[in-house]
Amino acid sequence: EKGEYRHFMEKEIHEQPDSVQHTLSEYLDLVTGTAKTNTIDFAAIDRIQIVACGTAFYAGQIGRYAFEKLAGLPCDVEIASEFRYRSPAVTQKTLAVAVSQSGETADTLASLIWCKAQGLNTAAVVNVHSSSMARVAAVLWPTHAGPEIGVASTKAFTAQVAALLALAVAAGVARGRIDAAREAELVKALFESPRLIAEALTMGDSIRAVVQDLAKADDVLFLGRGAMFPLAMEGALKLKEISYIHAEGYAAGELKHGPIALIDEETPTIALAPLDDVFEKTASNLQEVAARGGPVIMIAPEKAPDLHGAGIRRIHAPDCHPLIAPLVYAVPVQLLAYYTAVQKGTDVDQPRNLAKSVTVE
Ligand code: M6R
Protein backbone atom coordinates (compact mmCIF):
# COMPACT_ATOMS: atom_id res chain seq x y z
CA GLU A 1 0.00 0.00 0.00
CA LYS A 2 1.04 3.58 -0.67
CA GLY A 3 0.29 4.81 2.85
CA GLU A 4 1.01 8.52 3.20
CA TYR A 5 2.43 8.74 -0.33
CA ARG A 6 0.66 9.80 -3.50
CA HIS A 7 2.40 7.28 -5.73
CA PHE A 8 4.34 4.05 -5.32
CA MET A 9 7.30 5.77 -6.95
CA GLU A 10 7.34 8.44 -4.24
CA LYS A 11 7.07 5.78 -1.55
CA GLU A 12 9.86 3.73 -3.09
CA ILE A 13 12.14 6.78 -3.37
CA HIS A 14 11.65 7.32 0.35
CA GLU A 15 12.38 3.69 1.19
CA GLN A 16 15.94 3.97 -0.08
CA PRO A 17 17.73 4.58 3.22
CA ASP A 18 16.37 1.21 4.37
CA SER A 19 16.77 -0.71 1.12
CA VAL A 20 20.36 0.47 0.68
CA GLN A 21 21.21 -0.30 4.31
CA HIS A 22 19.73 -3.76 4.02
CA THR A 23 21.57 -4.45 0.76
CA LEU A 24 24.91 -3.20 2.09
CA SER A 25 24.59 -5.51 5.11
CA GLU A 26 24.57 -8.45 2.71
CA TYR A 27 28.07 -7.57 1.48
CA LEU A 28 29.72 -5.65 4.31
CA ASP A 29 30.20 -6.29 8.01
CA LEU A 30 29.30 -3.15 9.93
CA VAL A 31 30.77 -4.45 13.22
CA THR A 32 34.23 -5.26 11.87
CA GLY A 33 34.17 -2.59 9.15
CA THR A 34 35.17 -5.12 6.51
CA ALA A 35 33.88 -6.40 3.18
CA LYS A 36 32.75 -10.01 2.79
CA THR A 37 35.20 -11.45 0.30
CA ASN A 38 33.96 -15.04 0.18
CA THR A 39 31.01 -14.81 -2.22
CA ILE A 40 33.28 -15.52 -5.20
CA ASP A 41 37.00 -16.07 -5.82
CA PHE A 42 37.85 -12.59 -7.11
CA ALA A 43 41.51 -13.54 -7.50
CA ALA A 44 40.57 -16.25 -10.01
CA ILE A 45 38.98 -13.90 -12.55
CA ASP A 46 40.65 -11.35 -14.77
CA ARG A 47 37.63 -9.59 -16.28
CA ILE A 48 34.02 -8.82 -15.53
CA GLN A 49 31.32 -8.68 -18.19
CA ILE A 50 28.14 -7.06 -16.96
CA VAL A 51 24.95 -7.47 -19.00
CA ALA A 52 21.74 -5.60 -18.25
CA CYS A 53 18.96 -3.44 -19.70
CA GLY A 54 17.63 0.01 -18.93
CA THR A 55 18.24 1.30 -15.44
CA ALA A 56 20.11 -1.86 -14.47
CA PHE A 57 22.54 -1.13 -17.34
CA TYR A 58 23.32 2.26 -15.78
CA ALA A 59 23.81 0.66 -12.37
CA GLY A 60 26.23 -1.73 -14.10
CA GLN A 61 28.17 1.18 -15.57
CA ILE A 62 28.53 2.75 -12.13
CA GLY A 63 29.77 -0.64 -10.91
CA ARG A 64 32.32 -0.69 -13.70
CA TYR A 65 33.99 2.52 -12.52
CA ALA A 66 34.33 0.97 -9.05
CA PHE A 67 35.57 -2.48 -10.16
CA GLU A 68 38.26 -0.92 -12.32
CA LYS A 69 39.33 1.76 -9.85
CA LEU A 70 39.21 -0.24 -6.63
CA ALA A 71 40.01 -3.77 -7.80
CA GLY A 72 41.99 -3.19 -11.00
CA LEU A 73 39.56 -5.54 -12.71
CA PRO A 74 38.82 -4.78 -16.35
CA CYS A 75 35.06 -4.51 -16.63
CA ASP A 76 32.79 -4.26 -19.64
CA VAL A 77 29.13 -3.38 -19.43
CA GLU A 78 26.77 -4.00 -22.30
CA ILE A 79 23.10 -3.72 -23.10
CA ALA A 80 21.90 -7.31 -23.13
CA SER A 81 19.95 -7.01 -26.40
CA GLU A 82 23.21 -6.15 -28.18
CA PHE A 83 25.43 -8.59 -26.30
CA ARG A 84 23.31 -11.63 -27.05
CA TYR A 85 23.23 -11.18 -30.82
CA ARG A 86 26.72 -9.96 -31.69
CA SER A 87 28.89 -13.01 -30.93
CA PRO A 88 31.00 -11.29 -28.28
CA ALA A 89 34.53 -12.56 -27.65
CA VAL A 90 34.89 -13.72 -24.06
CA THR A 91 37.89 -15.16 -22.24
CA GLN A 92 37.63 -18.08 -19.84
CA LYS A 93 38.56 -16.12 -16.72
CA THR A 94 35.72 -13.67 -17.31
CA LEU A 95 33.00 -13.47 -14.70
CA ALA A 96 29.64 -12.74 -16.35
CA VAL A 97 27.31 -10.67 -14.18
CA ALA A 98 23.65 -10.10 -14.97
CA VAL A 99 22.06 -7.11 -13.22
CA SER A 100 18.27 -7.07 -13.04
CA GLN A 101 15.51 -6.06 -10.69
CA SER A 102 13.06 -8.70 -11.89
CA GLY A 103 15.56 -11.39 -12.82
CA GLU A 104 13.27 -12.13 -15.78
CA THR A 105 14.22 -9.61 -18.48
CA ALA A 106 14.39 -11.73 -21.64
CA ASP A 107 17.56 -10.29 -23.17
CA THR A 108 19.49 -10.26 -19.90
CA LEU A 109 18.48 -13.83 -19.11
CA ALA A 110 19.44 -15.01 -22.61
CA SER A 111 22.84 -13.31 -22.27
CA LEU A 112 23.42 -14.99 -18.92
CA ILE A 113 22.47 -18.40 -20.30
CA TRP A 114 24.79 -17.85 -23.27
CA CYS A 115 27.71 -16.94 -20.97
CA LYS A 116 27.09 -20.03 -18.88
CA ALA A 117 27.08 -22.18 -22.01
CA GLN A 118 30.51 -20.73 -22.88
CA GLY A 119 31.77 -22.19 -19.60
CA LEU A 120 32.07 -18.84 -17.81
CA ASN A 121 31.51 -18.34 -14.12
CA THR A 122 28.26 -16.42 -13.66
CA ALA A 123 26.66 -14.21 -11.04
CA ALA A 124 23.32 -12.41 -10.88
CA VAL A 125 22.59 -9.19 -9.01
CA VAL A 126 18.83 -9.57 -8.72
CA ASN A 127 16.08 -8.24 -6.52
CA VAL A 128 13.68 -11.14 -7.05
CA HIS A 129 15.59 -13.97 -5.43
CA SER A 130 13.42 -16.75 -6.85
CA SER A 131 13.72 -15.45 -10.43
CA SER A 132 15.04 -17.24 -13.50
CA MET A 133 18.37 -15.37 -13.36
CA ALA A 134 18.80 -16.24 -9.70
CA ARG A 135 18.38 -19.89 -10.63
CA VAL A 136 20.59 -19.84 -13.73
CA ALA A 137 23.57 -17.98 -12.27
CA ALA A 138 26.18 -19.92 -10.32
CA VAL A 139 26.30 -17.17 -7.70
CA LEU A 140 23.36 -15.14 -6.42
CA TRP A 141 24.22 -11.60 -5.37
CA PRO A 142 20.90 -10.42 -3.95
CA THR A 143 19.68 -6.87 -3.61
CA HIS A 144 17.22 -6.21 -0.79
CA ALA A 145 15.04 -3.45 -2.19
CA GLY A 146 11.82 -5.33 -1.46
CA PRO A 147 9.01 -5.41 -4.03
CA GLU A 148 9.15 -2.50 -6.47
CA ILE A 149 5.74 -1.55 -7.87
CA GLY A 150 6.47 1.66 -9.79
CA VAL A 151 7.39 0.95 -13.40
CA ALA A 152 10.16 3.53 -13.12
CA SER A 153 12.89 1.84 -11.13
CA THR A 154 14.22 3.76 -8.12
CA LYS A 155 15.01 1.74 -5.01
CA ALA A 156 16.00 -1.29 -7.08
CA PHE A 157 18.55 0.91 -8.87
CA THR A 158 20.21 2.21 -5.70
CA ALA A 159 20.21 -1.31 -4.26
CA GLN A 160 22.03 -2.52 -7.38
CA VAL A 161 24.54 0.32 -7.11
CA ALA A 162 25.06 -0.36 -3.38
CA ALA A 163 25.66 -4.07 -4.04
CA LEU A 164 28.09 -3.40 -6.90
CA LEU A 165 30.07 -0.78 -4.94
CA ALA A 166 30.34 -3.11 -1.94
CA LEU A 167 31.38 -5.99 -4.21
CA ALA A 168 34.01 -3.78 -5.84
CA VAL A 169 35.49 -3.10 -2.39
CA ALA A 170 35.43 -6.85 -1.66
CA ALA A 171 37.15 -7.51 -5.00
CA GLY A 172 39.79 -4.90 -4.24
CA VAL A 173 40.51 -6.49 -0.87
CA ALA A 174 40.58 -10.02 -2.28
CA ARG A 175 42.96 -8.95 -5.04
CA GLY A 176 45.31 -7.16 -2.65
CA ARG A 177 44.56 -3.72 -4.06
CA ILE A 178 42.97 -2.34 -0.89
CA ASP A 179 44.77 -2.44 2.46
CA ALA A 180 43.01 -2.66 5.83
CA ALA A 181 42.96 1.10 6.43
CA ARG A 182 41.47 1.83 3.00
CA GLU A 183 38.96 -0.99 3.42
CA ALA A 184 37.81 0.52 6.72
CA GLU A 185 37.48 3.95 5.09
CA LEU A 186 35.46 2.65 2.15
CA VAL A 187 33.19 0.44 4.25
CA LYS A 188 32.54 3.35 6.60
CA ALA A 189 31.72 5.58 3.63
CA LEU A 190 29.26 3.02 2.26
CA PHE A 191 27.54 2.65 5.60
CA GLU A 192 27.14 6.43 5.75
CA SER A 193 25.06 6.36 2.57
CA PRO A 194 21.66 5.54 4.16
CA ARG A 195 21.96 8.63 6.39
CA LEU A 196 23.04 10.82 3.46
CA ILE A 197 20.29 9.42 1.24
CA ALA A 198 17.84 10.38 4.00
CA GLU A 199 19.38 13.87 4.01
CA ALA A 200 19.04 14.05 0.21
CA LEU A 201 15.34 13.23 0.59
CA THR A 202 14.92 16.62 2.25
CA MET A 203 15.90 18.29 -1.06
CA GLY A 204 12.27 18.04 -2.19
CA ASP A 205 11.46 21.73 -1.64
CA SER A 206 14.43 23.05 -3.59
CA ILE A 207 13.68 20.59 -6.36
CA ARG A 208 10.00 21.54 -6.53
CA ALA A 209 11.16 25.13 -7.05
CA VAL A 210 12.75 24.26 -10.42
CA VAL A 211 10.29 21.75 -11.87
CA GLN A 212 7.89 24.41 -13.14
CA ASP A 213 10.54 25.42 -15.67
CA LEU A 214 11.53 21.85 -16.34
CA ALA A 215 7.96 20.79 -17.05
CA LYS A 216 7.79 23.39 -19.85
CA ALA A 217 10.92 22.13 -21.60
CA ASP A 218 10.89 19.95 -24.71
CA ASP A 219 14.46 18.81 -24.20
CA VAL A 220 16.63 18.47 -21.12
CA LEU A 221 20.33 17.67 -20.92
CA PHE A 222 21.87 15.82 -17.95
CA LEU A 223 25.63 16.11 -17.52
CA GLY A 224 28.12 14.36 -15.28
CA ARG A 225 31.64 12.96 -15.20
CA GLY A 226 32.91 9.71 -13.74
CA ALA A 227 30.17 7.72 -12.05
CA MET A 228 27.93 10.77 -12.48
CA PHE A 229 27.92 10.11 -16.24
CA PRO A 230 25.88 6.89 -16.02
CA LEU A 231 23.76 8.59 -13.37
CA ALA A 232 23.13 11.43 -15.84
CA MET A 233 21.86 8.84 -18.34
CA GLU A 234 19.69 7.30 -15.63
CA GLY A 235 18.29 10.77 -14.86
CA ALA A 236 17.45 11.29 -18.53
CA LEU A 237 15.77 7.87 -18.71
CA LYS A 238 13.69 8.59 -15.59
CA LEU A 239 12.53 11.94 -16.97
CA LYS A 240 11.64 10.39 -20.35
CA GLU A 241 9.76 7.50 -18.81
CA ILE A 242 7.44 9.35 -16.51
CA SER A 243 7.21 12.94 -17.77
CA TYR A 244 7.56 12.18 -21.52
CA ILE A 245 10.09 14.98 -21.89
CA HIS A 246 12.95 14.23 -24.24
CA ALA A 247 16.16 14.09 -22.24
CA GLU A 248 19.72 12.98 -22.83
CA GLY A 249 22.49 12.09 -20.44
CA TYR A 250 25.97 13.03 -21.57
CA ALA A 251 29.48 12.89 -20.24
CA ALA A 252 30.21 16.55 -19.51
CA GLY A 253 33.45 16.31 -21.49
CA GLU A 254 31.52 15.34 -24.62
CA LEU A 255 29.56 18.59 -24.60
CA LYS A 256 31.68 20.37 -27.15
CA HIS A 257 31.70 17.34 -29.44
CA GLY A 258 28.09 17.91 -30.41
CA PRO A 259 25.39 18.43 -27.79
CA ILE A 260 26.40 22.04 -27.08
CA ALA A 261 24.69 22.84 -30.40
CA LEU A 262 21.37 22.07 -28.67
CA ILE A 263 21.85 24.73 -26.01
CA ASP A 264 19.45 27.65 -26.06
CA GLU A 265 17.30 29.55 -23.54
CA GLU A 266 14.67 26.82 -23.63
CA THR A 267 16.92 23.84 -23.02
CA PRO A 268 17.75 23.27 -19.36
CA THR A 269 20.94 21.48 -18.37
CA ILE A 270 21.03 19.55 -15.13
CA ALA A 271 24.53 18.98 -13.82
CA LEU A 272 25.49 16.37 -11.26
CA ALA A 273 28.53 17.91 -9.63
CA PRO A 274 29.75 16.36 -6.39
CA LEU A 275 33.03 17.74 -5.04
CA ASP A 276 35.27 15.09 -6.54
CA ASP A 277 38.52 15.24 -8.47
CA VAL A 278 36.74 16.27 -11.69
CA PHE A 279 34.51 18.98 -10.17
CA GLU A 280 36.51 21.82 -11.76
CA LYS A 281 36.23 20.21 -15.19
CA THR A 282 32.44 19.86 -14.87
CA ALA A 283 32.22 23.45 -13.58
CA SER A 284 33.97 24.81 -16.64
CA ASN A 285 31.60 22.85 -18.92
CA LEU A 286 28.66 24.48 -17.10
CA GLN A 287 30.11 27.91 -17.65
CA GLU A 288 30.25 27.11 -21.35
CA VAL A 289 26.54 26.23 -21.27
CA ALA A 290 25.67 29.39 -19.32
CA ALA A 291 27.71 31.54 -21.70
CA ARG A 292 25.45 30.32 -24.51
CA GLY A 293 22.31 31.33 -22.66
CA GLY A 294 21.36 27.84 -21.49
CA PRO A 295 19.67 27.62 -18.08
CA VAL A 296 21.76 25.45 -15.73
CA ILE A 297 20.62 23.62 -12.63
CA MET A 298 23.72 22.54 -10.78
CA ILE A 299 23.34 19.90 -8.09
CA ALA A 300 26.40 20.20 -5.86
CA PRO A 301 27.32 20.44 -2.18
CA GLU A 302 26.85 23.81 -0.52
CA LYS A 303 30.58 24.19 0.01
CA ALA A 304 31.33 23.82 -3.71
CA PRO A 305 32.64 27.09 -5.19
CA ASP A 306 30.26 29.49 -6.88
CA LEU A 307 30.38 29.52 -10.64
CA HIS A 308 30.51 32.68 -12.68
CA GLY A 309 27.78 32.81 -15.23
CA ALA A 310 24.28 34.11 -15.32
CA GLY A 311 21.51 31.59 -15.22
CA ILE A 312 23.24 29.00 -13.04
CA ARG A 313 20.84 27.87 -10.32
CA ARG A 314 22.13 25.71 -7.54
CA ILE A 315 20.51 22.92 -5.61
CA HIS A 316 22.48 21.85 -2.56
CA ALA A 317 23.14 18.15 -2.15
CA PRO A 318 24.71 16.53 0.92
CA ASP A 319 28.49 16.48 0.88
CA CYS A 320 29.73 12.89 0.70
CA HIS A 321 32.62 10.52 0.04
CA PRO A 322 33.07 10.25 -3.76
CA LEU A 323 32.44 6.48 -3.64
CA ILE A 324 28.84 6.95 -2.53
CA ALA A 325 28.02 10.01 -4.64
CA PRO A 326 26.01 7.89 -7.12
CA LEU A 327 23.81 6.70 -4.25
CA VAL A 328 23.28 10.14 -2.78
CA TYR A 329 22.83 11.97 -6.10
CA ALA A 330 20.37 9.34 -7.32
CA VAL A 331 17.82 10.91 -4.98
CA PRO A 332 17.66 14.42 -6.50
CA VAL A 333 17.70 12.83 -9.96
CA GLN A 334 14.68 10.71 -9.09
CA LEU A 335 12.87 13.57 -7.34
CA LEU A 336 13.37 15.84 -10.35
CA ALA A 337 11.70 13.30 -12.62
CA TYR A 338 8.99 12.57 -10.07
CA TYR A 339 7.96 16.17 -9.37
CA THR A 340 8.14 17.08 -13.05
CA ALA A 341 5.78 14.23 -13.87
CA VAL A 342 3.42 15.25 -11.03
CA GLN A 343 3.51 18.80 -12.36
CA LYS A 344 2.60 17.52 -15.83
CA GLY A 345 -0.11 15.26 -14.44
CA THR A 346 1.14 12.06 -16.08
CA ASP A 347 0.50 8.56 -14.75
CA VAL A 348 3.63 8.25 -12.64
CA ASP A 349 3.34 4.61 -11.58
CA GLN A 350 2.04 3.30 -14.92
CA PRO A 351 3.67 5.36 -17.68
CA ARG A 352 2.25 4.92 -21.14
CA ASN A 353 3.63 2.10 -23.32
CA LEU A 354 5.81 0.64 -20.55
CA ALA A 355 5.69 -2.64 -18.64
CA LYS A 356 7.39 -3.36 -15.33
CA SER A 357 9.04 -6.51 -16.57
CA VAL A 358 10.09 -7.01 -20.19
CA THR A 359 9.95 -10.77 -20.57
CA VAL A 360 9.67 -10.74 -24.36
CA GLU A 361 12.21 -9.13 -26.66
O1 M6R B 1 13.93 -6.08 -14.25
P1 M6R B 1 15.13 -5.45 -14.91
O2 M6R B 1 16.00 -4.73 -13.94
O3 M6R B 1 15.93 -6.45 -15.71
O4 M6R B 1 14.54 -4.41 -15.92
C1 M6R B 1 15.38 -3.72 -16.81
C2 M6R B 1 14.67 -2.55 -17.45
O5 M6R B 1 13.55 -2.99 -18.17
C3 M6R B 1 14.22 -1.51 -16.42
O6 M6R B 1 15.29 -1.05 -15.65
C4 M6R B 1 13.57 -0.32 -17.11
O7 M6R B 1 14.51 0.40 -17.86
C5 M6R B 1 12.86 0.57 -16.08
N1 M6R B 1 11.56 0.95 -16.56
C6 M6R B 1 13.65 1.79 -15.72
O8 M6R B 1 12.97 2.66 -14.89
UniProtKB/TrEMBL annotation:
Is Repeat included in the keywords of this UniProt record? yes
**Catalytic reaction annotation:** D-fructose 6-phosphate + L-glutamine = D-glucosamine 6-phosphate + L-glutamate
Record localization? Cytoplasm
Q: Which GO terms describe its cellular component?
A: cytosol
Q: What's the chief localization of this chain?
A: cytoplasm
| UniProt-annotated catalytic positions | 356
Keywords on record:
Aminotransferase, Cytoplasm, Glutamine amidotransferase, Repeat, Transferase
* A GO molecular-function descriptor: carbohydrate derivative binding
The membrane-spanning stretches of this chain are: none
Instruction: Spell out the subunit comment.
Output: Homodimer.
Protein name per its UniProtKB record: Glutamine--fructose-6-phosphate aminotransferase [isomerizing]
The UniProt gene name for this protein comes to: glmS
Entire protein: shown range: 244 to 604 of 604
